[in-house]
Give the backbone structure.
Amino acid sequence: MFRVLIADDHPLFRTALRQVIESLFADYEILEAGTLDEASRFIDEAESYDIDLVLLDLQMPGSSGFSGLVSLRNAAPWVPIIVVSATSSDDIVRSAITYGASGFIPKSFSKEEIGVGMTRVLSGDVFVPYPDAVFPPPRSSALRADSEERLAALTHGELRVLDLLAKGKSNKIIAYELGIKESTVKAHITAILRKLKVHSRTQAVLAARDLSFGRS
């Protein structure tokens, strides 16, 4: 079962997101939160609820700026978060990705466009509305060498998990393919983030792809 947490204080928009999810998945469960505290309670129990994706509004009760995103990301770094916001300037989108979002979808998007964004993120891509404006130019050789050093610090098990993350696999699928428990996958992801010195699975995947890791 695919489980999604919709964290938005506008019931009408939560309904719209529900309709998108219903069109994408046959077997799903939707959790709804109207405040950051409610969303945090679901995330705190993520092991029980086994959440696969969070759709997060930046402006909701209890959240200021990117504090809600950072809070949920720190609580469960293995769960991909898509920011869904009415404000979508280049700076806002860039900051959301920097703070660990796996994607950014403007609320002005149609249901079809929202579905495309969700599908892209679930396939392992980072989805943003203006990729040319958001993503930085190629990094210097010195920074690349530093990233290669960090990647070399990963164990064989962590590298296998990172490889599957870069291919868009969910925690459940990674656990199944590697024959390990999902809790072990989450522990590997936590170690990967620490060793790569990044804050989210999105940033780990971007770092891996920047080094052509995980390509066939």
